[in-house]
Amino acid sequence: MFQAKIYVTLRKSVLDPQGSVVRKSLYALGYHNVQEVRIGRYMVVDLEVADRAEAEKQVRDMCDKLLVNPVIEDYTFELVEV
Amino acid sequence: MFQAKIYVTLRKSVLDPQGSVVRKSLYALGYHNVQEVRIGRYMVVDLEVADRAEAEKQVRDMCDKLLVNPVIEDYTFELVEV
Amino acid sequence: MKFGVVVFPGSNCDADCLHAIQTVTGQPVEYIWHKSGSVDGFDCIVLPGGFSYGDYLRCGAVARFSPVMKPVIEFARRGGMVMGICNGFQILTEAGLLPGALHRNKNLQFLCHDTYLRVENNTTPFTCRASEGQVIKIPIAHGEGNYYADPETLRQLEENKQVIFRYCDPHGEVTPEANPNGSLNNIAGICNEQGNVLGMMPHPERCAEAVLGNTDGQLIFQSLLDFWQRRCG
Amino acid sequence: MVMDPKVWREMGLTDSEYEKIVEILGREPNYVEVGIFAVMWSEHCSYKTSRPALKTLPTEGPAILQGPGENAGIVDIGDGQAVVFKIESHNHPSAIEPYQGAATGVGGILRDIFTMGARPVAVLDSLRFGELDNPRVRYLFDGVVAGISGYGNCIGVPTVGGEVYFADSYEDNCLVNVMCVGLIDQKDIKKGVAAGIGNPVMVVGAKTGRDGIHGATFASEELSEEAAERRPAVQVGDPFMEKLLLEACLEVIKTGYVVGIQDMGAAGLTSSSCEMASRAGTGLEMDLALVPRREEGMTPYEVMLSESQERMLLVVEKGTEEKVKEIFAKWDLDAVVVGRVTGDGILRIKEGSQVVAEIPARALTEQAPVYHRPTRVPAYLEEVQNYPVDSLNMPHDYNEVLLKLLASPNIASKEYAYKQYDYMVGLNTVVTPGSDAAVLRVKGTRKGIAMTTDCNGRYCYLDPKTGAAIAVAEAARNLVCSGAKPLAVTNCLNFGNPEKPEVMWTFWQCIEGMAEACRALETPVTGGNVSFYNETRGNAVYPTPTIGMVGLVEDLDKVCTQGFKQAGDAIFLIGENLPELGGSEYLKIQFGLEKGKPPALNLELEKKVQRFVLDEIKSGLIKSAHDCSEGGLAVALAECCISGGIGADITMVRRFRGDALLFGESQSCIIISVDRHKGVELVKKLVDAGVPYTQLGTVGGDSLIINVVNPGCTGCGGNLVNLPVKKIEETWRGAIACLMK
Ligand SMILES: Nc1ncnc2c1ncn2[C@@H]1O[C@H](COP(=O)(O)OP(=O)(O)O)[C@@H](O)[C@H]1O
Ligand SMILES: [Mg+2]
C-alpha cells in the first residue's frame, strides 16, 4: 500500500487572495519578516496498490483529471510505501 | 532567507467531509484502489530571517497563533534555506 | 420551447430556476436528474446555482463528472443553448465548456448583494432583448466568483466579444469599486466562441418577479425564448 | 460490582442523582447506563432546573397546532398550511470553535424543522459578543458569521434576519442562537414518536464517529480551562450531507411510510431513541453493531453518546424498510435498520447478542430530576437602578452624539454580517435584512410570513422582568411594523450558572415578564431552549431571553417597510416619548454607563399602538413604519431616512431634557409616515382610538433636521440636529466593517 502526499499550489500568475490576507495578518501580528505567503491544498490519498510505478501513474492521473485544476493550479506529489 | 512549507491536516477523529466526497468521486471515476482521502492545507511562507533556529521559532509561533486551528487541526512544517 | 434544469446533489437554486423560467416564459420546464444519461427533448439546459457536492475540493470539480454532463457537453457541442448560473458557471469552466476558472473572492468572504451589470454583447441568445451597454441590476451570492483566465485567453475572450456581462456602477462605468470579487476585467459572465453556452455568476432568477422588488432578470429568460422563436437575435 | 463515585461525578451526576438511578433500576447501573443517564439528566437535555418556570408560560391559543414538547412548534396560517419554527443555542461550542460551533448550530436547528416534515424556508441568527476592540472577539464574530454563512448558504436556506449585540458581559461567553422557520401542509406533520410495536427503527444519514461525546454535559457546566481540556472532539458540520438528508427525509415523509422521526441532536442516539419511545409510551430495542461507523473500535458507550451531525432516527411501517432504503439510496445516503419498537417501555441496547444497557425509556425523560433552586435578589440591582441618571450633563453637540450612536456597533448596520448570508435563495424573501422584520412570501398565495428575533440583554440585566417583557413587545412591534399580525413565540433563554440564587432569581423574573407580555399580546410560546452556565470565572452573561417571533401578513401588497417613501409625506410618532434615559445606548456611548432603570413597558398602551398601526398599514393609510429601539427617536428617524434615501424635517416640543427626547428609548413608539393629505384623517383615527401621538414633521430634502421648540423659555429651543443623510448613512453603514479591519 502507498500513501500519496499531494501538494497543490496556485500558479504563480494567479493572485492568491487568501495568501495576501494571511500575509497582512501576520504582519499585523508583528511578523515583519514575512515576505510572501501562498496557500494551497494538501491531500493525502491512501492507495491499495502493490507497485510503485502503478501508484505513481494512478496518482498523476487523478490529479490531472480531478484533484487539480490546471488553469490555476500546479501540483507535486510524493509517494511513501506504508 | 528561509522558506517554510507548512502542512496542515484535520485531526484524526475530526470528520473530513471534503475528503469523503473526493474519495467517493475518485471511486466513481474508476479508482477502486483508493482507501482514504484526507484534505488539508499547504502553506508556503517566505521569511527574511538569517538564522534557522529563529526561523523555526517564528514559524511555530505563527502556526500556533494564526495559521492553524489547534481545536481541529494538526501541523508539521519543513524549513528550506533559499 | 422546453427548458431543463439539472439537479446535482447539493444544487439549491434548481427550484428557483424552474420557478423563474415558468413564471417569465410560460414554457414547459423540467428537472434533469444528475444521473440521467440523456438530455433529449430539451431546447435549453440550465445548470443552476448552489453547492454541488458541497463545493468540496473546488466548486464544480466533482459535479462535472456527473453522468448527465456527458450528454450536456454533447448538446452544447451541437449548438444547444446551455446556461450556467453561479455554481453552474463554475461547473461549465471545470468541464471545459467555458475557459478560465473561478476562485476565492478577493476579500475571502461570501458576498450576497445586488450588483450592476453592463451588457457587453447583445447578439447572444441570452441577451438579444437587451441593448448594448444596457445596465441591469442582478444580485450575486457566491464565495468563489473571482474570474481568472491566462492573458492569452483573456485577450481572445475580449476580441471575440465573449465577455457578456461586466460589473459596473449604476451608470454603467466599469470601475474597480464596482468589482465585488476581484474578477479580471470585471467579468461577471462569458460565453463560448459559438455563443451558445453562457456562464454568469449573478442570479437572474432571483430578480424576475415584481413581488421580489426587481424584474431585471426577466431580460435573460425572455431573450432565450425570443431567440428560440426567432423574434430577436 | 459497585461503581467508583468518581465515574458518575465526572459525568456530571450528583450522588443523590446516582442513588435515584439505582432506585429506578432496582440495581447498580453499568458504565454505559450511567453515561446514558448522565447525558439525559444533564441540564441541557432534562431542563431539570428550568422546567418549573417554563411551565408558567402561556402555550395555548387558537392558532397553535403544536406547543412545547416536540422538536418544534407549529402555528396555523390558514389554507391547510402551517409554520414550523424553533430557536436553539450553540453557545458553548461556538466559544471553542466559532466556525464549526455556529455551523453545526445551524445544522441542528434545520433538522429540528425538517424532522417535523416541514421544508425550512428561513434562518435567523441572534448573536452576542464582547466588545470589538478585543481581537479575540473579532475572531469569534468573524468565525461565527462565517460558520452560519458556510452552512446556511450551502444547504440553500436563506438567513433573513437576526441581531448582533456587543457588550463586555459576553466577552468570555458569546451567544449564538439560531432560529429556523419552515413551511408545511398540515396533513404532512410528523412527530417524534416510536409508535407501533414491531415497527423497524432506522438510522439514516451520516456515519457515527467519536464527535462531541458528552457535548450535552459540556453545555451544562461553566466554561473553564479544565472544561476546555476535557472538551469532546469538535463536531464538524457537513452541510452537503445535510442537504441530501433534508431532501431525502422530505421525500420519504411524503410517502406515508414514516411513523415517527427525530433528529439526533445533543446526546445523539440516546436522546432520540428514548424520547421517541417515551412520547409513544413504547420501548425500543437496538443493536449498536448495526450502526454505520466512521471510526474503528468504537465502544457501545461511544456509539450511544456520539454527537455526530447530520443523522436521523426513523420509525417506519413494518414492511416498508426496503422502499425507504431506496429513497435514501437515491440521495446517496445510508439507511439501516438497527432495531424495532417494543411494548415493554424499555430502551434495550445490544451489541450483537449482548445486552449492554436496559433502562425504562421514561426514566430518562419524565423521571429526570426536577430542581426548585433557591433564588435571591442580586445585590447589584439596587445600585444600578437608582443611579441618578438625571444629574448627568446634557451634550453640547447633538450632531456629534447622533453620529456616535449610529457608529456604535449595537446600532450600526449589521450588513457586515448579513452580506455574507445568502438571504435570497428560495425566491421568497420579500423584505430582506435591514428593516424591522423579514417577510417571506408563501408561494401560490397572497400570504406572507414575517419573522424577527429580539432581546436587549442590558435591559434584562437592569430589570429582568421588564427587560424580558420588552423583548416580547419589541418582537411583536417589529412584526407589526412590517404589516404582520404576531402569532407565536419561541425563546432561547441564555443565563449564567443557575446554582447561584441570583441567576435563578433573574431567570424567574424574565419568565414572569415574558409570560405577562405573551399573554397580553396573545403570542403563546410554542417551545424554545434553555442555555445555562454561560459564565466564566464568576462573570455571567447579561440575562438574555431571546425572543423569536413569527407573524402572518394576510396580503403581500400591504407589506410595510421602515424607509420614508416620498417627499412631502407627513411624519408622526405613534405612542408616547417619555423622559427615560435608563439603560440606553446613549448612556453607554456618552458616559460609559450601563445603568438606570430601563424604559417602562405599559402593555395596554403597547397593544393599542400595535393594533392601530397594523390596522392602518392594512388600510393603506400608513406608508412606512419603524419602531424606536436602541438609540431612541433620533436613531429611528435616521434609519427611516437611510432606508428611504431621503431626508426629513422634524420639529418637536421640548417637554423634558433634550437628550432624553432624542435618545431615550421609550417603549411602544412607532414612527410612521402618511401621504400629506391624509394627516387629518390619521389624526381623527388616532383620537377616536385613544392612541397618543405626536406630529413630527415632513419627509423631504437630503438632510435629517431636528428642531426643538421650547414654549416656556425663549432661546432654549433651536436646531439640535442637521446632518446630510449621506453622512448619516456612511457612518452607520461602515462602522462595523471599519472596526473589523
Ligand atoms: N446577525 C444578523 N443576521 C441577519 N440579519 C441581521 C443580523 N443582525 C441584524 N440583522 C438585520 O438588521 C436589521 C436591524 O436589526 P436590529 O438592529 O436588531 O433591528 P431592530 O432594532 O429593529 O430589532 C434587521 O433587519 C435584522 O434582521
Ligand atoms: Mg432588535
TrEMBL record, chains A, B:
<keyword id="KW-0547">Nucleotide-binding</keyword>
<dbReference type="GO" id="GO:0005737">
    <property type="term" value="C:cytoplasm"/>
</dbReference>
<dbReference type="InterPro" id="IPR003850">
    <property type="entry name" value="PurS"/>
</dbReference>
<keyword id="KW-0963">Cytoplasm</keyword>
<dbReference type="GO" id="GO:0006189">
    <property type="term" value="P:'de novo' IMP biosynthetic process"/>
</dbReference>
<comment type="function">
    <text>Part of the phosphoribosylformylglycinamidine synthase complex involved in the purines biosynthetic pathway. Catalyzes the ATP-dependent conversion of formylglycinamide ribonucleotide (FGAR) and glutamine to yield formylglycinamidine ribonucleotide (FGAM) and glutamate. The FGAM synthase complex is composed of three subunits. PurQ produces an ammonia molecule by converting glutamine to glutamate. PurL transfers the ammonia molecule to FGAR to form FGAM in an ATP-dependent manner.</text>
</comment>
<dbReference type="GO" id="GO:0004642">
    <property type="term" value="F:phosphoribosylformylglycinamidine synthase activity"/>
</dbReference>
<comment type="subunit">
    <text>Part of the FGAM synthase complex composed of 1 PurL, 1 PurQ and 2 PurS subunits.</text>
</comment>
<dbReference type="InterPro" id="IPR036604">
    <property type="entry name" value="PurS-like_sf"/>
</dbReference>
<protein>
    <recommendedName>
        <fullName>Phosphoribosylformylglycinamidine synthase subunit PurS</fullName>
        <ecNumber>6.3.5.3</ecNumber>
    </recommendedName>
</protein>
<comment type="pathway">
    <text>Purine metabolism; IMP biosynthesis via de novo pathway; 5-amino-1-(5-phospho-D-ribosyl)imidazole from N(2)-formyl-N(1)-(5-phospho-D-ribosyl)glycinamide: step 1/2.</text>
</comment>
<dbReference type="GO" id="GO:0005524">
    <property type="term" value="F:ATP binding"/>
</dbReference>
<keyword id="KW-0436">Ligase</keyword>
<dbReference type="Pfam" id="PF02700">
    <property type="entry name" value="PurS"/>
</dbReference>
<keyword id="KW-0067">ATP-binding</keyword>
From TrEMBL, chain C:
<dbReference type="GO" id="GO:0004642">
    <property type="term" value="F:phosphoribosylformylglycinamidine synthase activity"/>
</dbReference>
<feature type="active site">
    <location>
        <position position="205"/>
    </location>
</feature>
<keyword id="KW-0436">Ligase</keyword>
<protein>
    <recommendedName>
        <fullName>Phosphoribosylformylglycinamidine synthase subunit PurQ</fullName>
        <ecNumber>6.3.5.3</ecNumber>
        <ecNumber>3.5.1.2</ecNumber>
    </recommendedName>
</protein>
<keyword id="KW-0067">ATP-binding</keyword>
<keyword id="KW-0547">Nucleotide-binding</keyword>
<keyword id="KW-0315">Glutamine amidotransferase</keyword>
<comment type="function">
    <text>Part of the phosphoribosylformylglycinamidine synthase complex involved in the purines biosynthetic pathway. Catalyzes the ATP-dependent conversion of formylglycinamide ribonucleotide (FGAR) and glutamine to yield formylglycinamidine ribonucleotide (FGAM) and glutamate. The FGAM synthase complex is composed of three subunits. PurQ produces an ammonia molecule by converting glutamine to glutamate. PurL transfers the ammonia molecule to FGAR to form FGAM in an ATP-dependent manner.</text>
</comment>
<dbReference type="InterPro" id="IPR010075">
    <property type="entry name" value="PRibForGlyAmidine_synth_PurQ"/>
</dbReference>
<keyword id="KW-0658">Purine biosynthesis</keyword>
<dbReference type="InterPro" id="IPR029062">
    <property type="entry name" value="Class_I_gatase-like"/>
</dbReference>
<dbReference type="GO" id="GO:0005737">
    <property type="term" value="C:cytoplasm"/>
</dbReference>
<comment type="subunit">
    <text>Part of the FGAM synthase complex composed of 1 PurL, 1 PurQ and 2 PurS subunits.</text>
</comment>
<dbReference type="GO" id="GO:0006189">
    <property type="term" value="P:'de novo' IMP biosynthetic process"/>
</dbReference>
<dbReference type="GO" id="GO:0005524">
    <property type="term" value="F:ATP binding"/>
</dbReference>
Automatic annotation (TrEMBL), chain D:
<dbReference type="InterPro" id="IPR041609">
    <property type="entry name" value="PurL_linker"/>
</dbReference>
<dbReference type="InterPro" id="IPR010918">
    <property type="entry name" value="PurM-like_C_dom"/>
</dbReference>
<keyword id="KW-0460">Magnesium</keyword>
<feature type="domain" description="PurM-like C-terminal">
    <location>
        <begin position="197"/>
        <end position="348"/>
    </location>
</feature>
<feature type="binding site">
    <location>
        <position position="111"/>
    </location>
    <ligand>
        <name>substrate</name>
    </ligand>
</feature>
<comment type="function">
    <text>Part of the phosphoribosylformylglycinamidine synthase complex involved in the purines biosynthetic pathway. Catalyzes the ATP-dependent conversion of formylglycinamide ribonucleotide (FGAR) and glutamine to yield formylglycinamidine ribonucleotide (FGAM) and glutamate. The FGAM synthase complex is composed of three subunits. PurQ produces an ammonia molecule by converting glutamine to glutamate. PurL transfers the ammonia molecule to FGAR to form FGAM in an ATP-dependent manner.</text>
</comment>
<feature type="binding site">
    <location>
        <begin position="89"/>
        <end position="92"/>
    </location>
    <ligand>
        <name>substrate</name>
    </ligand>
</feature>
<feature type="domain" description="PurM-like C-terminal">
    <location>
        <begin position="566"/>
        <end position="702"/>
    </location>
</feature>
<keyword id="KW-0479">Metal-binding</keyword>
<dbReference type="GO" id="GO:0004642">
    <property type="term" value="F:phosphoribosylformylglycinamidine synthase activity"/>
</dbReference>
<dbReference type="Pfam" id="PF18072">
    <property type="entry name" value="FGAR-AT_linker"/>
</dbReference>
<feature type="domain" description="PurM-like N-terminal">
    <location>
        <begin position="434"/>
        <end position="553"/>
    </location>
</feature>
<keyword id="KW-0963">Cytoplasm</keyword>
<dbReference type="GO" id="GO:0005737">
    <property type="term" value="C:cytoplasm"/>
</dbReference>
<dbReference type="Pfam" id="PF00586">
    <property type="entry name" value="AIRS"/>
</dbReference>
